[in-house]
Amino acid sequence: MSNDSGRYVVLGKGEIERNRLNEGYLYFKNYARDSKVIYNDAVVISDDAFVLDLATGSGAWLLDLAETVPPSVTIYGVDISSAFFPYIKSEKNQNIHLLAQSCTSLPEDWTGRFDLINQNLVRGALTRDDWQQELKEMFRILKPGGHVQLFEGDCDDWKCRPGSAHEKMRELYKALLDKNSLMFDCGKRLPEMLAKVGFENVHSEVKYYPVNVNEGEGGKMGSNIISRFLRSLKPAILRHSGFGIVGSDEEYETLIAEVQREWNEGTPFFDLVLIYAQKPVV
Ligand SMILES: C[S@@+](CC[C@H](N)C(=O)[O-])C[C@H]1O[C@@H](n2cnc3c(N)ncnc32)[C@H](O)[C@@H]1O
After folding, report:
1. Relative to the CA of 81, which ligand 1 atom is closest?
2. Distance of CA 50 to CAs 92, 200, 278, Å?
3. Matching CDD domains, A to Z (predicted)?
């Protein structure tokens, strides 16, 4: 992870971001991940398993997992910032441990310790070099036969009608990620990057999610959550003078409203990719 705090392009701080992460977790779980906490049905969590959630943020995934496994399972959460860590000091959560540390450099004595590693939505923070370093760390700290699961965005296949608000938003988003050396095509590249560090049984699946308010509760939630995500990019976009695409706060807000209107007319938003893989048994 670079120390360049400018790379936290999508991350606000404080309560607003924490709420966005928690609501986003439930929305994506229900509408993009088939209500699953563990994505690969072949993964079995034994009573003495060790599980890790990297870039845990508000800890939404690990708290959800903790509800479904016995308290004898040890659960770690790691994030470079403790700003969003959940309050876990209850009797019930004795098996949960949170650590403020970069996912690109994990404790030496964790080698071969974990059965399952989870990581969701870190595209806005890790450069390609960070990813390469992190995937090696994941491989190191997994037990032989251990599993990793990732859920990340991919804008490469985000097809937009020429002249549409979506096309403008895509250009803006790409400019912002490029400016910060972040991977626009993260979801697409990760499977080959996982294979390169030695993972096998790599599975990758594009996941769509509803953003059209006319498509029931999920569509309403998606429109709200994703438009808030786009709004969270505004300060960084305006810091770069809107990349010559939008000129002011008002113009960006108008663009978000236009994008929402296009969602309601049936335009899909960009895809998320669900990926899982396994460290070889020997
Ligand atoms: C968009 S949030 C996602 C949080 C959580 N995974 C979720 O899906 O709700 C990205 C998280 O990555 C964390 N992060 C950024 N760079 C990191 C790094 N190098 N190591 C660990 N965490 C990092 C941020 O602090 C933030 O909590």
Report:
1. 25
2. 17, 20, 15
3. AdoMet_MTases
Whether the CB of 121 sits within 6 Å of ligand 1: yes
End-to-end CA distance of the chain: 30
What atom of ligand 1 comes closest to residue 83's alpha carbon? 25
From residue 215, how far is each of 26, 31, 222 by CA, in Å? 17, 12, 10
Q: Is 122 in the pocket of ligand 1 (CB under 6 A)?
A: yes
Question: How confident is the model over 65-111, as pLDDT tens digits?
Answer: 999 999 999 999 999 998 889 888 777 889 999 999 999 999 999 99
Asked whether 188 and 195 are in contact (CB, 8 A), the reply is no
| Rounded-to-integer distance, Cα 219 and Cα 210, Å | 5
What amino acid occupies position 258? Answer: E
Does residue 1 have its Cβ closer than 6 Å to ligand 1?
A: yes
3-state secondary structure of 272: strand
